[in-house]
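Hi V.,

You were right to ask for the full record rather than a summary. Here it is.
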Amino acid sequence: MWFKNLQLFRLTEAFGHTAADIEDALAGHGFRPCGGLDLFSLGWYPPLGEPGQALVHAANGCFMLCAQRQERLLPASVVNEVLAERVEAIQAEEVREVGRRERQRLREDLVGELLPKAFTRSTRIYCYIDPQAGWLIVDASSRRRAEDLVSLLRQGLGSLPVKPPESSEPVSGVLTEWVRQGSAPADFLIGSECELRDPEEQGAVVRCRRQDLTGEEIRTHLEAGKLVVRLAVEWSDRLSCILGDDLAIRRLRFTDLVVEEASESGGEDAAALFDADFALMVLELRGFLQRLFEVFAPGSEAPAAAKTSARAA
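Predicted structure:
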């Protein structure tokens, strides 16, 4: 259940839906397996993983959702191999060349023939809505996959006013200065991994792992004008991650201390354990994201949902 990659979206208006509202809205967009000629299928699936359960898992004012994506595996290499055999057979039997348009038509017919026979692969994408803090957070390493989920959620709810978070200054500039100075704000600790990129179009990219980022080699790259676009950081002995210049958070890992706290507070059944993990993860990420945006967007406006909650309190 613990998220590993975070794609962040700000709620720009108060989120007034209840769990029952969301459940009703998503019911018509539940997951269905791929049809015969579908390349992929995307729909909602119960977060607890059992068909027939609720599509919304609510805890501590937050809502956990899960989308299941199924796609057919039809590698281009397979299509090309069978296409070449058919083209060769036509040319041998009819003693003529197969033109470009005919090849394209044969390819389309071939895909229609092979697609229903192709294997399928299913993956699940989790997200949660935190109305109090004003976040929609998707556990996905790909921005495109996250936006697919947001679009699906918007279809069900009718509208979903969210936008990617913004920094008051380029994130790469801040990360570069952290590495250049060898220090970060007091509650952040720089790790031993980073990615540097030349800002010029098609510029060089350098990826470092298990590297002393205060060493001469890294300093040389910085003096040559490269910017830090991804950086490993730890925060307050609670979590570690790779922070990107797009404000995406990758390879998120909660420390053993946090995981142990969750195990001590959980119950015996799966739902109780899920609740405990979910509640603690939300609490940790609220604190981390608040601090992160104090650093990267000082003085920025809080999400409308969070301000509304604060006034109500």
